[in-house]
Automatic annotation (TrEMBL):
Top-level taxon: Bacteria
GO annotations of cellular component type: ribosome
This protein's name: Large ribosomal subunit protein uL29
Entry keyword Transmembrane helix: no
UniProt record similarity statement: Belongs to the universal ribosomal protein uL29 family.
Gene: rpmC
UniProt keyword terms in alphabetical order: Coiled coil, Ribonucleoprotein, Ribosomal protein
PROSITE patterns, sorted: RIBOSOMAL_L29
UniProt organism field: Candidatus Southlakia epibionticum
Ranges in coiled-coil conformation: 10-37
Length: 72
Protein backbone atom coordinates (compact mmCIF):
# COMPACT_ATOMS: atom_id res chain seq x y z
CA UNK A 1 0.00 0.00 0.00
CA UNK A 2 1.20 3.52 -0.72
CA UNK A 3 2.49 5.63 2.11
CA UNK A 4 -0.04 8.44 2.59
CA UNK A 5 1.89 10.21 5.33
CA UNK A 6 2.23 13.89 4.44
CA UNK A 7 5.33 15.82 5.30
CA UNK A 8 5.85 19.55 5.43
CA UNK A 9 7.99 21.13 2.75
CA UNK A 10 11.19 22.79 3.83
CA UNK A 11 11.32 26.50 3.12
CA UNK A 12 14.24 27.81 1.09
CA UNK A 13 13.93 31.26 2.64
CA UNK A 14 12.57 31.84 6.13
CA UNK A 15 10.49 35.00 6.32
CA UNK A 16 9.84 37.04 9.42
CA UNK A 17 6.34 37.69 10.72
CA UNK A 18 6.50 41.29 9.49
CA UNK A 19 7.42 40.16 5.97
CA UNK A 20 4.58 37.64 6.00
CA UNK A 21 2.11 40.31 7.13
CA UNK A 22 3.31 42.68 4.40
CA UNK A 23 2.85 39.93 1.81
CA UNK A 24 -0.60 39.18 3.26
CA UNK A 25 -1.66 42.80 2.88
CA UNK A 26 -0.47 42.77 -0.73
CA UNK A 27 -2.38 39.57 -1.51
CA UNK A 28 -5.54 40.92 0.10
CA UNK A 29 -5.29 44.05 -2.04
CA UNK A 30 -4.74 41.87 -5.12
CA UNK A 31 -7.86 39.87 -4.23
CA UNK A 32 -9.93 43.04 -3.86
CA UNK A 33 -8.67 44.34 -7.21
CA UNK A 34 -9.38 40.99 -8.90
CA UNK A 35 -12.90 40.85 -7.44
CA UNK A 36 -13.56 44.38 -8.68
CA UNK A 37 -12.29 43.43 -12.15
CA UNK A 38 -14.41 40.27 -12.15
CA UNK A 39 -17.58 42.18 -11.32
CA UNK A 40 -16.81 44.64 -14.09
CA UNK A 41 -16.29 41.78 -16.54
CA UNK A 42 -12.65 42.67 -17.16
CA UNK A 43 -10.98 39.68 -15.46
CA UNK A 44 -9.73 37.26 -18.11
CA UNK A 45 -9.08 34.29 -15.79
CA UNK A 46 -11.53 34.06 -12.86
CA UNK A 47 -9.65 31.07 -11.42
CA UNK A 48 -7.16 33.60 -10.11
CA UNK A 49 -9.66 34.44 -7.36
CA UNK A 50 -9.44 30.95 -5.87
CA UNK A 51 -5.67 30.86 -6.16
CA UNK A 52 -5.29 34.16 -4.34
CA UNK A 53 -7.70 33.05 -1.59
CA UNK A 54 -5.61 29.90 -1.07
CA UNK A 55 -2.41 31.93 -0.93
CA UNK A 56 -4.00 34.19 1.69
CA UNK A 57 -5.00 31.14 3.75
CA UNK A 58 -1.44 29.78 3.50
CA UNK A 59 -0.06 33.12 4.68
CA UNK A 60 -2.47 33.16 7.64
CA UNK A 61 -1.30 29.66 8.54
CA UNK A 62 2.38 30.62 8.26
CA UNK A 63 1.86 33.73 10.41
CA UNK A 64 0.01 31.73 13.06
CA UNK A 65 2.72 29.06 13.11
CA UNK A 66 5.45 31.70 13.40
CA UNK A 67 3.63 33.41 16.27
CA UNK A 68 3.25 30.11 18.13
CA UNK A 69 6.92 29.31 17.58
CA UNK A 70 7.86 32.76 18.84
CA UNK A 71 5.85 32.26 22.04
CA UNK A 72 7.72 29.09 22.93
Amino acid sequence: MADTKKTAKKADVVKTIDELRAELATKQQDLNDSRRSHKAGELVNPRVLGQIRKEIARLHTAIHAAELKEEQ
